[in-house]
Each structure stands twice: as C-alpha cells, then as structure tokens.
Amino acid sequence: xxxxxxxxxxxxxxxxxxxxxxxxxxxxxxxxWRHFVQKRGQSNTVQETTIPARAAxxxxxxxxxxxxxxxxxxxxxxxxxxAVILGGVTRLTESGLSMVDWHLVKEMKPPATQDxxxxxxxxxxxxxxxxxxxxxxxxTEFKFIWYMEYSxxxxxxxxGLAYILPAIYFWRKGWFSRGMKGNVLFLCSFVCFxxxxxxxxxxxxxxxxxxxxxxxxxxxxxxxxxxxxxxxLYCVSLWSGLSLLLPQHKLPETHQLLKLRRFAHGIAGxxxxxxxSGAFVAGLDAGLVxxxxxxxxxxxxxxxxxxxxxxxKNIFENPTTVQFxxxxxxxxxxxxxxxxxxxxxxxxxxxxxxxxxxxxMAVAYLQGDNYHVGDHSSLLLYFLAYCHLxxxxxxxxxxx
Length: 400
Prior knowledge:
- The chain is mainly α.
- Helix content is about 70%, strand content about 0%.
- It is built from 15 helices and no strands.
- It has helices spanning about 1-15, 15-25, 25-55, 65-90, 115-125, 130, 140-175, 180-205, 220-245, 255-285, 315, 320-345, 350-375, 380-390, 395-400.
- The longest helix has about 35 residues, at about 140-175.
- The radius of gyration is 32 Å and the shape is flat.
- It starts with a helix and ends with a helix.
C-alpha cells in the first residue's frame, strides 16, 4: 500500500518533469534521470520515517486515554456507592421483599393502571411478609415500598450498563493496557454476578418456613455476601481509577514506610469485616436488641451472649452476639485508625497521603458518633442510619 501511494505521488507531482525528460536529448536525459531518482529516494525516506513517528504519537493507551478511563472508573465506583446507600434505605424501609419476582427486562416497566397495581399487590399477598407482618397494608402503602425496591433494582441495572457499555467501546478503541483488560473483565463479570446475588438474597425472604415463627426476612448470610461483593466492586473500581489519574509517589522503601503500609492493609481488612458484621446486624434486626451504649442494657457483657448451641452458631445467628461483635469490631476499627494516624505523623509523607489519613480518621469518628447518638433520638433514626451506612466505604479506600 505504501509503495502504491508513493508511486501515485510520483506520477502526480512529477508529470511536467517527465514530459521535459522525454523531449530532451540523450546526454541531458541521462543527467536528469539520475537527479530525479536521487530526489525521489530522499523523499521516500522522509515519508517512511514520518509514518512510524505519527503512529507513535497517536499510540494508545496514552495519558489522555488513561484520564478518560480513570474518570469512567471513578463514576462507576460512585454509582456502586449510591447503590449501597440505596440498598440500605430499602432495608430500613423494609421494602426489599415487595417485588416477588425478577425479570431482567420485563420488570423495568412499572404497573401503569389500577388493575396492574392490584394484580401486583395480590402477588405480594401470597408471600410470608404480608401474611405475618403486613397483613393490614393498604395498596397506597404497598406502592411506596414497591417503588423503593424498584428504584434500587433500576439503579443496579444502570450500574451494570455504566460498566459494560463503555468497557466495550474502550476495548474496541484499544484504550486498555494488558493489566487493565484483566481488571475490566473482572469488574464487568462481577457486576453481573452482583445482580444475580441480589435476587438470590431476596429469594431467601420469600420462602415459606412452616417451623419458624420469626418475622420474614432475607438470609443474613446472603445479605452479607451481597454487601461484601458490592464493597469489593467499589474498592477495585476506585483503586483502578485513581491508579490511572494520580501519579504514584516514589518514596524510599524505609522500614517505617513498609510497616505503615502493612498496618494500613490490615486496617482495610478490619473495616471490611466490620461492614460485613453490620450486614449480619441488619439481617437479624440485631440492632433492636440493645439500644444503649457503651453498655448493653445494664451489663458490659450480656448474659445471653452464648445461648445457642453449638457455640460457633452464636457468632452468626444470635442477635445479641452479632450486635456485641459488631460493637467490638467498630471500636477496634476506630482505635486502629487512630493508631495509624498517630504513627503516620512520625513519617515524612506526601501531602496527598496525609490528607487521606486525616479524612479516614474524621470519617471513622463520625461513623462511631452516628452509632450511639442514634440510640437517643428516634427522630434522627433514619438519617443517622443512612450516614452510618454510607461511610463504610471511604475507610476502605483511604486505608488501602
């Protein structure tokens, strides 16, 4: 192709010299031909060296495409954070079991007529939550909880599209490095898995349990898996995006810096398990068992802490033990973050790292305050619960 373009350019730009070459005498023609060949050879050399240079300038991925991909991943992580908060609101309003079936496309259109709403309400009446908990619910009240769950599901679909569609476009444009391709494949696969896991969780609350007199609720194990996978999705997206947008500081690998890094990674794991224990608290309604802090009732250690048998079962199914463990993990997280902040003050760190550590500690103490202040004011219960749920994510980012 390059030879064809070169030959065509020869014919286009040297038509008149060739005519002159034909009409001149033999000695002059020989001299002109030698001059012509040397000139075109130099021109071809310049063209052949220019094309690879242009290709190198426009090669992808580059800093410009990395900025676009990084911002896209930050938007995705923000949407995942919104899904976590919206899921918490759905849980607090007890709306999660209002939609009793799952269709990827069909359910995207809400009921339009009165007959459609009544048909949807009749389906809900066939399941345990209505029979044992909401048997006196009106159609207007049902519409509220239905729209809460509907908004959560639609937001989840929007999150999936926000990952998959741009990923396909960027992949075709060649904007991903080899390592980033692996990350993007994981994220797109995981967001699909997250949606299926959400329905698997809801399905557990729709099952009939003849031998149980408990309030119908989703499995605390599946709820913890759903929340944990969302936090993993959030953290990987945020970390990948920031890695593309922010230049990495090159610091000397001192003993103190390595110790700080290991400490931070350990705290990230501790905060993650604290968030998962919160899912068990929500799944068992364990937060309603004791509403005093720092004591649980009149005691530091409640008497019914280990009433289930075997003992290990208490950690996951005894509401008292679940709340006790969540308190311990929360206090341990705040104490560990405080120690991390104080230790970091002894090490010369970049300004960006210092800001992250300061923000981490501020969010940790704000979240701790939300926990015990909410016990004394029922008017602020929902607001503080939302605030308590949302900050579960920044510590994972800042400590990582």
